[in-house]
Amino acid sequence: MHMDMAHYLLTEPRKDKENVATPPSPAKEAYRRLLPEKLLNNRTRILAFQNRPPEPANNFLAELRADAASIQDKPARQRRYIPQSPERMLDAPGLVDDYCLNLLDWGSANVLSIALGNTVYLWDASSGSTSELVTVDEDDGPVTSVSWAPDGRHVAIGLDSSAVQLWDSTSNRLRRTLQGVHESRVGSLAWNNNILTAGDMDGKIVNNDMRIRNHAVQTYHGHHQEVCGLTWSGSGKRLASGGNDSLLHIWDVSMASSAQSTGRTQWLHRLDDNLAAVKGLAWCPFQSNLLASGGGVGDRCIKFWNTHTGACLNSVDTGSQVCALL
């Protein structure tokens, strides 16, 4: 940055060569001798690396190496522990081996209902006690589906005879029987407040209002094989249904037709990316438009759907059929 000093050093050798024959005058010689003393402090170079520069007070590279070593020494973050053995195992003799049926349901009162043949049992997870709720007649059985009402007290059971019964679990009393709506077994049930939705082997889905005498109020038409899974969204405005026809439907509650109507319901989305029956269904509790579905042995995948657009966001191969999702 010292332009005068740089100019002097660049031009001094050339002047010496040009004036070799003529000796410099004493005045010029004195000037040349004084100039480096004043400008360069008796240095002959602008940049001199005669000695190694001193080490900085804080050695940056040494600190980096120390930090890297400390990071390596830290233990890896522990992964979430997933137990490989069940916490409790219950005997279930007589459990019907049928993928399309829904024979287990856990109620809000922490009681598990399970259908074994013609009998429905209740297992209280708090006390560990087991009790029998009902054994249906041979002509009506076996039991093909169970579903707890939101109150955790009443449980609906679907029958092979096409009827649906509502039982009070505290008094073991039959409160109501729904008949004349379905013509085949009822393998799936789902509650939406006071509405009990039932799906049968013929692919018909019916909304039953349990508060009124003429309970069948709405129907959904879209499946042409047995309805394997039903679940309502948290808002109660969307219904997801999976069928043995490998179809997944998303229905809007406002688009259902009346039970007496012969017209066909227009679904919101018909999703046919599945390769087998769709049974496991679960709405995301914190993102209302996200739905997970599980397929049978020919599909083996859990798929995640955007129910606003109908797009499949992800598909995970589980290596086995998916019977239920929570």
Automatic annotation (TrEMBL):
<feature type="repeat" description="WD">
    <location>
        <begin position="220"/>
        <end position="261"/>
    </location>
</feature>
<keyword id="KW-0677">Repeat</keyword>
<dbReference type="InterPro" id="IPR019775">
    <property type="entry name" value="WD40_repeat_CS"/>
</dbReference>
<dbReference type="GO" id="GO:0031145">
    <property type="term" value="P:anaphase-promoting complex-dependent catabolic process"/>
</dbReference>
<feature type="domain" description="CDC20/Fizzy WD40">
    <location>
        <begin position="90"/>
        <end position="325"/>
    </location>
</feature>
<dbReference type="Pfam" id="PF24807">
    <property type="entry name" value="WD40_CDC20-Fz"/>
</dbReference>
<dbReference type="InterPro" id="IPR056150">
    <property type="entry name" value="WD40_CDC20-Fz"/>
</dbReference>
<comment type="similarity">
    <text>Belongs to the WD repeat CDC20/Fizzy family.</text>
</comment>
<feature type="repeat" description="WD">
    <location>
        <begin position="136"/>
        <end position="177"/>
    </location>
</feature>
<dbReference type="GO" id="GO:0010997">
    <property type="term" value="F:anaphase-promoting complex binding"/>
</dbReference>
<dbReference type="InterPro" id="IPR036322">
    <property type="entry name" value="WD40_repeat_dom_sf"/>
</dbReference>
<protein>
    <recommendedName>
        <fullName>CDC20/Fizzy WD40 domain-containing protein</fullName>
    </recommendedName>
</protein>
<dbReference type="GO" id="GO:1990757">
    <property type="term" value="F:ubiquitin ligase activator activity"/>
</dbReference>
<dbReference type="InterPro" id="IPR033010">
    <property type="entry name" value="Cdc20/Fizzy"/>
</dbReference>
<dbReference type="InterPro" id="IPR015943">
    <property type="entry name" value="WD40/YVTN_repeat-like_dom_sf"/>
</dbReference>
<dbReference type="GO" id="GO:0051301">
    <property type="term" value="P:cell division"/>
</dbReference>
<dbReference type="GO" id="GO:0005680">
    <property type="term" value="C:anaphase-promoting complex"/>
</dbReference>
<dbReference type="GO" id="GO:1905786">
    <property type="term" value="P:positive regulation of anaphase-promoting complex-dependent catabolic process"/>
</dbReference>
<keyword id="KW-0498">Mitosis</keyword>
<keyword id="KW-0853">WD repeat</keyword>
<keyword id="KW-0131">Cell cycle</keyword>
<dbReference type="InterPro" id="IPR001680">
    <property type="entry name" value="WD40_rpt"/>
</dbReference>
<keyword id="KW-0132">Cell division</keyword>
